[in-house]
Q: What sequence folds into this?
């Protein structure tokens, strides 16, 4: 538990720093490049994310679990070799699509430049250190990269005509992060030169795809609305949706931290004691509800003040999108628990099947709802799809491991609703003051209703 807590502090501290830097970068870009330019940028980032998933072929998730189990002999060399080949193929495919099929020259150039990041990501061994549960170097690389990216943006991006420099800055940030992590690996983990190796590559990919395939399908789903909106409605609507979704992604730093820690820790805990593992997941569900439910309720209530403050009044249309999309945060957080459980008990194929069903559901519903209801329909489709995926994932895990419902659910719901009611009836005031008031009221209600107790907090702190 102490190792988990230490890693949590490392990764949460660095991820908060990185997300805060990213938050300021996004807010700055949204105001400087305009709604349409912001949409073009986010389409470019989405294409990069798809190319990264294509090139990873599930090796990152598989590698993290293999390293956590002590099965890392020769793995780094093989993974780097495979990813070098797949990254080159992905880059060529994206470049051809951009040149042949994309009529917007700026967008085509952005897609190609963004995808140069594929090559430094080959050497970004975050999966290795995740498996080792050494999170400090991962956090350091990400934070320095984010700071460099923000600095470059502030220096060179001032209008929509400077969009290309955003892609250049992203590539420079990724190169920096990869160099830091790779240098640390060579100094502290393995001082031998990298040797290209394809030994057992077919078997490795065959094992990695069921495990990593689910993560890939999930990432495809969450990024799909940007592409669909861009094709059906245009770059401006993609920019509006992106404004709402970026706030959700900022909140999802909690999910990123949880997933990064839970994958290696879950495999270790389940090997030690399935009963202990089940109790840990039950506790995690309780704390997820405690942190996410008030954020969803309070965020929906103050969204009409939050969106203009962060992005400017030109993004006010994103308010209604945010009110719907924020519930994706709750369902995704809970989904991470059941996903980690399935992977830990060796049900990777079940996980991949569920995520494939989720992708089909997402694709059909997002396209249909975008055509019928616009960007709000896109948001509703992805939220409902995630809720259905959560239900299926929980059902599949319950077939092999029972997780009791956490205590104090009723008190958590009541505390969140009362906090929301107070926010509704408060007089107009600064949005950050509203957030502070809501947090104080909610925390007081949690203790008053005994949803959490001082002794419980003390037990957690003992292990940190």
A:
């Amino acid at each position: 538990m102490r190792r988990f807590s230490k890693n949590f502090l490392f990764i949460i501290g660095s991820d908060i720093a990185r997300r805060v830097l990213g938050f300021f970068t996004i807010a700055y870009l949204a105001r400087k490049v305009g709604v349409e330019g912001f949409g073009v940028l986010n389409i470019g980032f989405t294409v990069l994310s798809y190319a990264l998933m294509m090139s990873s072929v599930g090796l990152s998730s598989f590698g993290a679990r293999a390293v956590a189990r002590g099965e890392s002999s020769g793995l780094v060399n093989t993974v780097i070799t495979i990813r070098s080949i797949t990254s080159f193929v992905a880059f060529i495919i994206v470049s051809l699509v951009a040149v042949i099929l994309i009529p917007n020259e700026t967008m085509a150039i952005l897609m190609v430049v963004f995808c140069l990041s594929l090559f430094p990501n080959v050497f970004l061994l975050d999966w290795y250190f995740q498996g080792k549960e050494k999170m400090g170097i991962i956090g350091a690389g990400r934070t320095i990269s984010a700071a460099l990216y923000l600095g470059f943006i502030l220096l060179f991006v001032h209008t929509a005509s400077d969009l290309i420099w955003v892609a250049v800055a992203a590539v420079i940030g990724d190169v920096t992060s990869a160099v830091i992590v790779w240098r640390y690996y060579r100094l502290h983990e393995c001082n031998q030169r990298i040797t290209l190796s394809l030994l057992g590559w077919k078997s490795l990919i065959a094992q990695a795809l069921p495990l990593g395939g689910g993560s890939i399908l999930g990432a495809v789903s969450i990024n799909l609305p940007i592409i669909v909106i861009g094709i059906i409605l245009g770059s401006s609507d993609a920019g509006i949706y992106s404004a709402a979704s970026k706030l959700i992604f900022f909140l999802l730093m909690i999910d990123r931290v949880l997933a990064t820690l839970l994958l290696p820790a879950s495999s270790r805990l389940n090997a030690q004691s399935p009963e202990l593992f089940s109790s840990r997941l039950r506790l995690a569900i309780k704390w997820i509800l405690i942190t996410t439910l008030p954020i969803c309720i309070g965020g929906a209530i103050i969204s009409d003040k939050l969106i203009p403050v962060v992005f400017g009044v030109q993004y006010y249309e994103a308010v209604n999108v945010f009110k719907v999309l924020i519930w994706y945060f709750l369902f995704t957080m809970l989904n991470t628990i059941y996903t980690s459980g399935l992977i830990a008990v060796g049900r990777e194929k079940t996980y991949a099947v569920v995520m494939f069903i989720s992708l089909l559901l997402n694709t059909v519903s997002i396209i249909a709802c975008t055509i019928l209801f616009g960007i709000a329909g896109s948001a509703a489709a992805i939220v409902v799809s995630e809720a259905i995926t959560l239900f299926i994932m929980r059902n599949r895990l319950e077939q092999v491991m029972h997780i009791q419902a956490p205590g104090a659910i009723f008190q958590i719901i009541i505390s969140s609703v009362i906090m929301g009611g107070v926010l509704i009836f408060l007089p107009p005031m600064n949005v950050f003051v509203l957030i502070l008031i809501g947090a104080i009221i909610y925390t007081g209600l949690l203790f008053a209703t005994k949803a959490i107790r001082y002794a419980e907090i003390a037990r957690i702190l003992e292990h940190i």
In short: Residues 2-406 form one domain.
